[in-house]
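Would you be willing to look carefully at the protein I have copied below?

:::
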Amino acid sequence: MLGKLYAKWMYSWETALTTRDTNRIVRPLEWGFDWLDGSAPPDGAASSANGSANGSANSPAKVTAFDRAEFERMVALNQKIVQNAEEFFAYETPQDFRLETRHPELFPTNVRPETLKQDAELKRLAKNGELEKAEFLRFTSPVTTRYPENDVVNARWYPAPAEKQKGKPKQAIVILPQWNADAFSHNALCTLFNRFGISALRLSKPYHDIRRPQELERSDYAVSSNVGRTIEACRQAAIDIRCCLDWLAEQGYEQFGVLGTSLGSCYAFIAAAFDPRIKVCAFNHASTWFGDVIWTGQSTRHIREAFEQAGMTQEQMREIFTSISPMSYMERFATNPRRVLVVHATYDLTFVRKFSLDVLKNFDRCGVDYVSKVLPCGHYTTGETPYKYLDGWYLGSFVYQAFKRLAEQNATAK
């Protein structure tokens, strides 16, 4: 009885949190083949909904009804990407790494009064010289889009104190917050890891905070009803993570980890699948198929609506996002030994629990060395008291122990 009451209360709270923002926009389906130039199947499939294989950057056509030929072309494109994934996620290391010092900004993605008040206060403090400046790693992303602000990567730099790093290899972790996170999300984790002697780069994902185009209030272009743009955003994020590792290696760092929450966990997983340097992985909410999350998640209901309006099903959604689904790279991920944490929530209405359990099932199948932790809350309530402290404990203790073990293995090998 108490369990049922708790579940009802939790689902109600979770629903309230996922419906409080009023600036979610339903945009019509666009196939977005023009975002994936150079990746189209060579068999000359039917022309895209944009009118040609490349389409128009300024006036993409809106899909108002399901087009079987276009769907099959997108499925074929996803299959080709998976088959040639090494090439699709390949990149050249940027040559313009630099550290930039500036006042941190919030870059809110909602218009709630308390958020706007917080943003205004930070701007006031910065203007009066009362806000401490921070360091940010900046460089040009190897993946270029039609939004210049999005193509300059931004990662807030939290170097660990030198005395905390003595006697062990230099260790660092790249952190990716959730979809639509503001620029302060997960910063507390970075300072926590610094206490352990682990440096941190808090990465702004594509289309997030300072990388967000001026035309948007939310980070809508990272996940949207434009299929090609969503796939390209994931490709850009995975490559940006690996570029961060390149810079860290240039600074003398030797052991690397990645921590991703929600959408960030998908990006982190794919980056790790293609980069054996990543030895520590913390996935804070994880799922198997990208399309299933869009279809079943409360926070993506406005995106699902666009696909439903075009007559698409959940199974078809899964097929058109295969190329950016963790399941497509599960065996590749398991090839390299690494320590992995998966945190999922019992009452999650965004990353539905059964999909998180499917991740664990496949980790077992592939022999991945992982730890599973369960939160007695939902997706959004993970960020609320007291659950955020429990989540922080799971993440912090795992990362600490995993890097400690890496250092010990390194000492033994010498």
Q: What stands out?
A: Strands lie at 98-102, 134-140, 152-158, 171-176, 198-203, 255-261, 278-284, 339-345, 370-375. The longest strand covers residues 134-140. The chain has 14 helices and nine strands. The mean pLDDT is 92.
